[in-house]
Specification:
heterotetramer; A: about 290 residues; Glutathione S-transferase Yfyf (Class Pi), Chain A, domain 2; Rossmann fold; 2 domains; two-stranded parallel sheet; 12 helices; globular; C: alpha/beta; binds flavin-adenine dinucleotide; binds iron/sulfur cluster
Chain lengths: ~290, ~650, ~160, ~140
């Protein structure tokens, strides 16, 4: 099975490990992620004002390109996923805006693409049962907190990947990998997002809450689907904030790759500062 | 040739001032078929009516027109007089020349009024010529009422009907009557104990010689119409012989198996053979056949061994009985929206987030904790309790858009009960508005705040989660504009009151309407609040919408007065304004059937002499037809007509316009 | 008809308006106008029916055939029907009927629909005055009258 | 605070413009407080989400524009997700931001962003930040 794949700017650069570990794991469980031939930045924010047609054009261009490659498009980054999926829905449901966007782009894309997250492919196409069978190195004893953040879940009517208040898809995946998922109250709270640019205080507070909440429930490692969450959480730990427990923050595909027997050296654990490697060593996983 | 009489009333000067009634009388006299006309000062006065009757007899009239005030005023008077004079009362027609002519045209020359009166009178005369004799329809009335649902509303209805001397059957689907009120601890606004005021009524219903209780039973099928319902009731197998069981309790003492108690909302267990609560009426147990190993795989049977009178019968089966009733009261009540519907409040996953009804059980002296407030998770006394109002109510996105009406009041009550039982405890209430309309209700809420120290916070709670054995509430106080976080020991949701599952099926069985929330529709929300569009079926209590006990009881009594009025004579007479099908021209398209708002048209089988069905035709059930005439216009074959307003009559009137 | 002759001889056009109204709302509203001694134009002749649901579109055609210049149909407000849904049936029927009207070439303005409740005497008064004005403006409805002169079957 | 209220404040053309741009109907908000309760940055807002809606209902746009609320909102959509009335404060605040940005007034200057941030941060943070803060 081959699925067209939109990497997005961040996964092409600072979050390259997220991208490669996912692709490698996909191969292991039986599908192939094919980069779109042509792609551009999705804009990294879904335009919340409905009259903002310009904000829709960048993602619309991506979708239109993707349609040439097939009927489905997969992504990894929560923000890309959110922007593409919502834009796609607008183009599908809202005739007027579809017309404006297409006129501007001189295109005729109709929103017929099925935009899915990598996790959905794992869950719905492969199945966690099957995933479990493919695991060669079960993550035994790893207490992992799945952190969803905002963009993978909200708004539920547009995204609908899982229950917006009590999602479990990542926990279910972690279980399949042999890890022990840890539920924590702040798993659907915001990390501070783009305020990283101009409001460190807010980011540190919000990200700090998330880490503390996970640690309080016993999480030894936090798993995310979003490079910005990863950046904010890790950044908060690295800053002089003494209260924040030092919990490694990794992409879910890094743990996935590990469990599926990929060489740890290629999974980018060194990028996460020493803590991750130390933790995994302690657990006897690397 | 018809012999018609026309009587033009002057109404003192009311009509005469703008209508030359004598001229009208003189002119109409010239019309074909009119043999007598007169103008009179006060037609409705005794001498007026006497002269009216005399004229009918003397002139051998076969039809009369009275051109006078609105038919809404005196149609009955003149029809009765016409009947007294030997005429079929439907051969008497009124022309409205006062309200709709003399009073609204102030022309002093009297030309306008006179012309219009002539026109209108002529139209009535032409219409009258097409009138047929009609006889009032009489329907026999079975003086026996069915009450569906034995909550407080149903019990009240049954007691009042029975006290009025008529027989009542209560069909209750649970093993005991009492409904939700049986679960309550103390009740606002007077704070009397629910059991103390309900139990005597339950016992009275049981002992009343006019009331029969069919508990553990449900209505399967309803046929017929007002005065003549035929109802099939399913009596579910109790596996206990009601006639011999003494309610001694040996069986449920000894039964070794347990299940969650429905009555206690999962807060405690009951046995497999059980009565839902100690004061149950009747105090006769039932066996939960889905859990009894004797029934499932022929093991145990302990209860039968210990039962002195040998009342246990494992072979009992559900029984169907069909009985006749003249009227039906529907009082099937409500339930609370399930806790699991509240995502942001923990989906029913957090043990210490409970519903208002569960709190009632905790506070009830006969409840699982004997009236002590204990949190379910670890049975400790909660010191900080947060009450969240409007949980699921006024939330069109995830719940229901309406206000549940009683939860502001019961939340205030809960904070009081809590403070009375946990003196050092603090109650917090998140509310959007406090709705305490009712006699002494606002004072009650003020008491909760001022006297019992409840902390009211104006704002909705955004999220509830568990942390370190506490329940964390994240909300807002919009009055100060701040976010509020409370570490509570227990959370009580003032959960939306919703219709019972299956309420729509019950409505369909009965042929009554319901709204999108499956609450039953009143005939008219203000003026016929306990009637339904189906004559003979009445509504009481919370199956109509949220209401408290006083209102439920009032409605129960109101339905009883309706039922007793209906039962006050052996036969009901009603206007013969009903539809009738012409069997020659009906071509069985059933357009009429689908258009009738009262489901009054049936598909009738026409059989030949050998009894084979040769044809199907529409047939109007006089008992159900309300005479709206919708079917007449729906029928493309013009095969159906409305007595009293036939096409012929209407066309005759139009033709002379 | 003597009236018709009069109208023509006097030269002033007095439109003839037929009103089909339901017994429970509009008829009672019209009564209330009387009880309150309001005044309105005298051109309307009311035919009372149990419900607007009983008003057959053919009644309206018949009224035109018999010399009406305008027809008014009025009943209970939506949701207030004495027979719960009768007026909904009526409304649905009229939507179809309007097409028929347009087809027969009758100016749609000649048939007016309204809701007048039992308490809306003022609305009734205004309605009658307005409809009368409208019909006056439209002038006599000759189409069917001419047809009638030729005889009913030669249309 | 004392406000003088008239129809021209409640239904001003500016309010209508905000409704148009944001696609939200201001009067749908029934002031339940849920959004303020759940908003992660409510604590840092000079005017918290519920009050944002109230200020708009009262036509008090100037006060809102002068506050930091629209710039602090992270767009996490928690407010919209839980609003019983399906109102999106997030969209409303975005609408207010747009009013400023579309006039060409930047909230942040690119020069002020620390260089290490520009180098190390995920591209998405920078792109998104530019969209929210720079015209
Ligand atoms: C937490 C809470 C606290 C309250 N506190 C107060 C208070 O303090 N004061 C006050 O005035 N009110 C209070 N109320 C409201 C009160 O409970 C109701 O007003 C009252 O119980 C309604 O009675 P009912 O007979 O309409 O319905 P119910 O009590 O629901 O009775 C309906 C009966 O019909 C039966 N039934 C249902 N369907 C069928 C069927 N198909 N066939 C046969 N039987 C059927 C049911 O089993 C039940 O026995 C409170 C409500 C709640 C939720
Ligand atoms: C401004 C306003 C608007 C309202 N709007 C609505 C609405 O939209 N919808 C709604 O449902 N309700 C409405 N109501 C409420 C409604 O008016 C009442 O519920 C209703 O009229 C009460 O009727 P009643 O028969 O109890 O009392 P009343 O209407 O007061 O009738 C009592 C009668 O008793 C007579 N009477 C009094 N004393 C004696 C005596 N000693 N001997 C003989 N006769 C006596 C009085 O003269 C009177 O005729 C409104 C009320 C107000 C004030
Ligand atoms: S019958 Fe009517 S119009 Fe005649 S006097 Fe009586 S009230 Fe007046
Ligand atoms: S032991 Fe027998 S008599 Fe006693 S309650 Fe049980 S069934 Fe009834
Ligand atoms: S036979 Fe069933 S009901 Fe009787 S004691 Fe055993 S389990 Fe209980
Ligand atoms: S009664 Fe009070 S708590 Fe209940 S829904 Fe209405 S306002 Fe909310
Ligand atoms: S007149 Fe009305 S109620 Fe009677 S059968 Fe016809 S549609 Fe039904
Ligand atoms: S609509 Fe007319 S033809 Fe059709 S079934 Fe009814 S009565 Fe018969
Ligand atoms: S949650 Fe919605 S309704 Fe409630 S205050 Fe916020 S915007 Fe208004
Ligand atoms: S979107 Fe903005 S206003 Fe809404 S909850 Fe998130 S931060 Fe608060």
């Amino acid at each position: 099975m081959k699925i067209p794949y939109y990497p997005g700017c961040t996964l092409n650069t600072v979050a390259k490990d997220f991208d490669t570990s996912a692709k490698e794991s996909a191969r292991a469980v039986g599908f192939e992620m094919e980069d779109l031939e042509q792609w551009n930045c999705c804009g990294a924010s879904f335009p919340l004002t409905p009259d903002n047609i310009m904000g829709l054009t960048a993602p619309a261009k991506v979708l239109s390109e993707a349609k040439k490659a097939g009927d489905r498009l997969t992504t990894l980054c929560s923000v890309c996923y959110n922007v593409l999926k919502r834009t796609n829905k607008v183009l599908h449901d809202d005739k007027a805006r579809r017309k404006s966007v297409n006129e501007f782009m001189e295109d005729d894309y109709d929103g017929s693409l099925d935009v899915v997250h990598y996790l959905e492919v794992l869950r719905d196409d492969i199945g966690f049962e099957k995933l479990k069978e493919t695991v060669t190195k079960p993550l035994e004893g790893v207490k992992a907190g799945a952190y969803y953040g905002c963009m993978l879940l909200r708004p539920f009517d547009d995204i609908g990947i899982d229950n917006a208040e009590a999602p479990t898809v990542m926990e279910d995946m972690l279980k399949a990998l042999g890890a022990t998922p840890v539920d924590f109250p702040d798993k659907i709270e915001c990390c501070g997002a783009h305020l990283a640019m101009n409001n460190k205080e807010v980011v540190q507070r919000l990200s700090g809450n998330v880490i503390a909440s996970a640690a309080n429930e016993g999480a030894e490692i936090i798993v995310t689907t979003c490079p910005l969450c990863q950046y904010n959480l890790e950044g908060t730990q690295e800053s002089a904030n003494a209260d924040t427990p030092n919990v490694p923050i990794v992409y879910f595909t890094q743990l996935l790759g590990l469990a599926l027997g990929q060489d740890a050296a290629n999974l980018g654990f060194d990028n996460n500062g020493g803590a991750t490697e130390k933790f995994l060593k302690k657990k006897g996983l690397i | 040739m018809p012999r018609i009489g026309v009587f033009v009333c002057q109404c003192g000067n009311n009509i005469e001032a703008t209508v030359d009634t004598q001229k009208v009388a003189d002119e109409t006299k010239k019309l074909p078929g009119v043999v007598h006309t007169e103008s009179y000062k006060f037609m409705c006065s005794s001498p007026g009516q006497d002269s009216f009757k005399k004229a009918i007899k003397d002139n051998k009239l076969d039809g009369v027109v009275v051109s006078a005030c609105s038919p809404h005023m005196h149609e009955k008077t003149f029809r009765r007089a016409a009947e007294a004079a030997g005429l079929n009362q439907f051969q008497c027609e009124i022309t409205n020349v006062r309200e709709q002519c003399s009073w609204v045209h102030h022309d002093e020359t009297r030309k306008i009024g006179t012309d219009k009166t002539m026109d209108l009178t002529r139209m009535t005369i032409q219409r009258l010529k097409k009138n047929r004799d009609l006889t009032k329809i009489t329907i026999p009335v079975t003086k026996r009422a069915l009450v569906i649902g034995g909550g407080i509303a149903g019990i009240q209805a049954a007691l009042d009907i029975a006290d009025g001397g008529q027989e009542v059957v209560i069909v209750e689907k649970e093993p005991s009557i009492g409904g939700n009120m049986a679960r309550l601890s103390e009740t606002f606004p007077t704070m009397d104990c629910s059991q103390c005021i309900l139990t005597p009524k339950m016992v009275e219903a049981e002992l009343h010689d006019k009331i029969s209780l069919y508990t553990y039973s449900e209505v399967e099928k309803v046929d017929g119409y007002i005065g003549n319902f035929s109802v099939t009731i399913k009596k579910k197998a109790k596996f206990v012989d009601e006639s011999t069981c003494t309610g001694c309790g040996e069986c449920w003492e000894k039964c070794p198996f347990k299940a969650d108690s429905e009555f206690e909302l999962g807060l405690s267990k009951r046995k497999v053979i059980y009565t839902p609560f100690p004061q149950a009426v009747p105090n006769i147990p039932v066996i939960d056949k889905t859990r009894c190993p004797k029934i499932l795989k022929d093991k145990c049977g302990l209860c039968a061994k210990v039962c002195g009178p040998q009342s246990i019968d494992f072979t009992q089966e559900d029984q169907l009985v069909t009985e006749e009733f003249g009227a039906i009261v529907v009082a099937t009540g409500y339930e609370l929206m399930p806790n699991k519907d509240f995502g942001e409040y923990g989906y029913g996953k957090i043990t210490d987030v409970i519903s208002g009804m569960q709190f009632e059980r905790l506070a009830s002296a006969s409840g699982p904790t004997g009236g002590a407030i204990r949190r379910p998770s670890d049975n400790t006394e909660p010191k900080n309790v947060v009450f969240i109002q409007c949980a699921g109510s006024r939330d069109e996105k995830r719940g229901v858009s309406y206000c549940s009406k009683i939860c502001c009041m019961y939340t205030a009550k809960h904070t009081m009960l809590y403070r009375h039982k946990v003196h050092d405890g603090q109650a917090y209430v998140f509310y959007m508005d406090i709705r305490s309309g009712g006699k002494r209700y606002e004072e009650f809420v003020r008491g909760a705040i001022e006297h019992d120290g409840a902390m009211y916070l104006r704002g909705r709670v955004s999220r509830v989660y568990e942390k370190d054995g506490k329940v964390i509430i994240q909300g807002a106080d919009t009055l100060s504009g701040s976010q509020v976080e409370i570490e509570a020991d227990m959370v009580v949701l003032a959960t939306a009151l919703v219709s019972r599952p299956g309420a729509d099926t019950v409505a369909q069985t009965l042929g009554i309407g319901y709204d999108k929330y499956k609450f039953y529709n009143e005939y008219h929300p203000k003026l016929k609040p306990v009637e339904t569009v189906t004559a003979g079926i009445f509504l009481a209590g919370t199956c109509v919408g949220p209401m408290d006990i006083p209102e439920s009881v009032s409605q129960g009594s109101a339905t009883a007065s309706k039922v007793l009025a209906l039962f006050s004579s052996d036969k009901m007479a009603r206007e013969p304004i009903t539809a009738e099908v012409n069997k020659q021209t009906c071509n069985a398209c059933w357009d009429c059937v689908t258009s009738c708002p009262y489901v009054a048209i049936e598909k009738e089988e026409i059989k030949d002499r050998k009894g084979n069905v040769v044809n199907m035709l529409a047939h109007v059930n006089d008992g159900l037809c309300q005479g709206c005439g919708v079917c007449v216009c729906a029928c493309r074959s013009k095969a159906i007509d409305l007595n009293g307003y036939t096409d012929e009559q209407v066309y005759a009137a139009i033709a002379t316009f | 008809m003597p009236e018709e002759a009069k109208i023509e001889t006097e030269g002033v056009f007095e439109p003839k308006i037929m009103a089909f109204v339901c017994n429970w709302c509009t008829y009672a509203g019209a009564d209330l106008a009387g009880t309150s001694r309001m005044e309105y134009r005298p051109n309307v002749r009311i035919i009372k029916l149990p419900c607007t649901g009983r008003i057959d579109p053919l009644f309206i055609m018949k009224a035109f055939e018999n010399g009406a210049d305008g027809v008014l149909v009025s009943g209970c407000h939506p949701g207030d029907c004495h027979y719960t849904t009768g007026n909904y049936h009526a409304r649905r029927r009229w939507t179809a009927f309007k097409d028929l009207l347009a087809f027969t070439g009758i100016d749609l303005k000649r048939v007016q629909f309204s809701w007048v409740s039992a308490s809306e005497a003022i609305k009734w008064v205004e309605l009658i005055n307005n409809v009368t004005d409208d019909m006056e403006a439209l002038g006599p409805f000759m189409k069917f009258k001419e047809m009638n002169k030729k005889g009913p079957n030669q249309g | 605070m004392k406000i003088k209220l008239g129809k021209e404040d409640i239904d001003s053309s500016l309010i209508q413009q905000i409704e148009r741009v944001s696609g939200e109907t201001i009067k749908r908000c029934y002031q339940c407080g849920n959004c303020s309760g759940g908003c992660p940055v409510s604590y840092a807002m000079e005017i918290p989400p519920t009050q944002v809606m109230r200020y708009l209902q009262l036509g008090m746009v100037e006060e809102l524009m002068a506050s930091n609320s629209m710039w602090v909102c992270v767009g996490c959509l928690q407010c919209f997700s839980r609003c019983p009335q399906s109102v999106s404060v997030a969209n409303t605040l975005e609408g207010l931001r747009q009013l400023v940005l579309r006039k060409g007034e930047d909230h942040d200057r690119i020069e002020d962003i620390p260089l290490p941030m520009l180098k190390n941060a995920p591209q998405m943070a920078i792109v998104c930040g530019f969209r929210k803060f720079v015209s």
